[in-house]
Amino acid sequence: MEQPNENQQASPAEGSPQWTAAAMPALTQDCANRGADWDAALARQREKQDILDANAALGKFYARRLNELSLEWERDNTESRLEAFALGEHYDFAGRSGRRRAKIDTLEHVRELYTYLTTTKADLDMSSFLEGVANSASAEFRALASAELVHRAQLIIATASVLEVEGDRVQVTGARTIELRGGVVAASKRADAAMFALGEFNAQADKRRVAWASKGILTSSNVRNTIASY
Q: Is the Cα torsion angle 105, 111, 114, 118 positive or negative in sign?
């Protein structure tokens, strides 16, 4: 990823070929390409945001389902005890156990999906989104820097006759020049901040992955520690 530099300015030597009218079509096309790259980066960022939104909705669904299954499990616990005590030696241990096994397997599976969604997948997708934000910010910087370059070239071409008379110390600065320079500086800072946020998030995510790995994945062997009244 290209690192932005807010001090980058369009100020090569006035006699270079890129400051001639003949060079303007290439500069203008490059500016258009940079703008298209920025639009494409924003589109990819929105796609990544959609994934985060979908994760949030699915997480709510899983949470509701977990609550429902947990309540069903509690009811089944109560019913199975009452039935066992009432029937005594005639209690259908095999049949009831099979039904209970199906319930706990379903509950465990939903819990595993929910855990993965809200931990590993959440971090991976958030990292991807933040990378998209950083890419968009970098693309914005390049697009604005290119627009500033085109404007600078236009100014030099327009003041060529003045330069011939006054030399290379002539400066023409107006509202548009100030606006473009300010936009480039601000975009550079946004890109730097986005890159920093991505790095910080990934560092914390690495720590979380180590912690999760040390705890292991929820399975039937440790479900007694996670589901009440099992």
A: negative
Name the band, by pLDDT with cuts 50, 70 and 90, for residue 226: very low
What per-residue confidence (pLDDT) applies to 167? 65
Q: What Cα–Cα distance (Å) separates residue 159 from each residue in 10, 151, 154, 166, 182?
A: 16, 12, 9, 10, 23
Radius of gyration in angstroms for the set of CA atoms belonging to the chain, rounded to a whole number? 31
Name, in order, each residue with C-beta under 8 angstroms of 58's C-beta and a sequence gap of 6 or more: 117
The tokens for 128 are: 């991807």
pLDDT of 213 above 50: yes
The answer to whether residues 156 and 19 touch, using CB atoms and an 8 Å cutoff, is yes
Closest CA to 226 of 62, 88, 108: 108
45 within some domain:
yes
Question: Which pLDDT does position 169 carry in this prediction?
Answer: 65
Domain count, the chain: 1
Overall size of the chain counted in residues:
230
CA trace torsion 42, 46, 51, 54 (10° rounding)? 170
Query: Which whole-number Å values give the CA distances from 195 to 25, 36, 148, 202, in the listed order?
Result: 33, 21, 23, 11
pTM over 0.90: no
Any domain includes 230: no
Domain limits at 159?
A: 36-225
Q: Are 187 and 209 contacting, i.e. CB atoms less than 8 angstroms apart?
A: no
Nearest Cα to Cα of residue 184 among 34, 5, 29: 5
